Here is the input.
Amino acid sequence: MNAVPGLWRRWAVKLAQYASWVLPGAPSPWGDAMRRELDYIGDDRAALRWALGCIVASYRARLAHWPSFSARIAGRHVATSGTLMLLIGLALLENAGGQTPSPPPTFDETTCDVPDVSPQLRPRLRCGTISVPRSYDNPNAGRFKLAVVVIKSEQQPSWPEPVVYINGGPGSPLTVYAAHQARIPYAPRRDLILVDQRGTGRSEPSLCPDLASKLLDATLAIAATNTEEAAANRRSTYLACRDEAIAGGLDLRNFGTRVTVEDLEWVRQALRVERWNVYGESYGTTVAMTLVALYPDAIRSVVLDSVYPPDPVPPWSTTVNDARDAFLAYCARNQVCSTSFPDLAGTYQDTLAKLDQNPPVVAVPPQMRQPDDRVRITASLFEVGVSDLLYYANAYPTLPRMIQSVHDGDTQGLGAVLASQFATAATLNRATHAAVECRDRPHFRKQLPSDASVLDRVQLFGVCDRWSEPGPSPLVPERTKVPTLVLAGQFDPVARPASSRHVTALIGDSARFIEFPLIGHNVRQFSPCGARIASDFIDHPEQAPDTSCTHRMAPIRFLSKMQPP
Amino acid sequence: MPRKPNNSRQTRALLAALLDRSQTWRHGYDLAKETGLRSGTLYPLLMRLSEQGLLESRWQEAERPGLPPRHVYRLTGPGLALAREQELTAIAAERAGALA
Here is the structure.
């Protein structure tokens, strides 16, 4: 008896689609691999038989990733259990009956709307969007469009295996900085791929875009007064955003590093990249490590610049204090610094005590929208400001002079420094930051002690336990075979060299660790030596990089003490 | 007694097919037709061989417009070595059978 023409084929497509979901680590290339063969099978009945086999294959793969169960049903029970699983699968298919097959990942090119692009760079840019599933567990949940920019190599043809740069945050935009990213190539002969992670930059969804400005006041209040009221205000600002996001139809479980990794894998497939070189920076290292752990076959090499490892991590205040102490100790050893600022460590502590007693008020630019355009510089706010400056190696020459000036009562330039710091912080989407961190980081669900440092009080403690349920943890690719380069800055206030060294040891023999003296966060950006080592490594990941330039780092050219007029 | 890995009849058939045209990238459906393995058996074997580093895979652009890229496979160096070893073992077993 002939079936209705095409009906078996449609069933075959649905079954193959179902098989893709069942596979562990979706979107696994194996799901696509099996499903796409259907287009090459002319006979509809043969296609249906193929698709039924795909379901069996997927359940077998799933069982293979579930060792205890797999072992239990090994041997003579396999056939029975396989049949049972197939029946369960078919039963579940009833729920999937109404959905259409998921289209394969595609790159939809658009015109490039990127600022500061030179006429030389413009023809090398490809801009567009890639639609990814909102939920990798529920293909019916719709799509998010991710903004993607590909910067073609200056010399054509490009070498195969491009570089994908994964930036930090989480919550920072990226594609808008494409012109900046093109200035120092990660690997000159390879294309560079930039993606705005979901909820950042120009990628969907738009998650409480004004949260950063709302949080500014709340954060300043915490720095000004260590009261429960200030903390509660900040918490309620976050939770109002959470409620707004949920009311707008967002499921906050669809965030987190594991989701971002699936997005990137989707992007790789859409761009038809067989293997790529991964460069993760700051939080981007969390994503990069998880990507290597889950999709090693698609990765030729990985650079981890300023590692932010999965939990457990020390409190931020501990990391900052270590970095600041190391910087102050370096100043004491440096002739120019110690001559101009003898006992800078003592001066710093004196400054905090003075600000505690008598916090001065400084003028700030109108864009900070503070009452009368003024901000009170408390000891806590100063501590946060100095911690922030430790990120940037180009701030080091002026940092001792700034501490000394504030100590001596000269706060004239401090308003501009603060404004610049808050402007930078405002580019981060705070809601996406919370959405990812609250899924990834169990430590934010703990109670902070009442005497906790301000550096910890401005984190997500007290927010995450009400934001969303915890998600699957980010991963460290222990014992991976993917060649890995780990870069750390000596004075990094958030990614301590000791943590990076520990991660390197966990990864094992495929990883090399390099510490850069006199550098803070983001080694490549602030060290030409680091940029060259990374570039050489990406081109020759199996070779030990020439690290001699790390021994020739120029000393910091400290500005001397301001002379009175 | 535990079974020797990669020594099942199905795995040997697949390795033999891949060895037969070892320089050619092979499609899943073609391998299924050649070996008589169903997709439910074939793909778990392909996945396992790939995880063991015995098989490499890549996406191959479609030969005709309108068709999707296909996942294609071929043996790696260690995969070729294993397939050849199994082939030699099979030949030796056949010879032993003939002499018996």
Observations:
- Chain B has a mean pLDDT of 83.
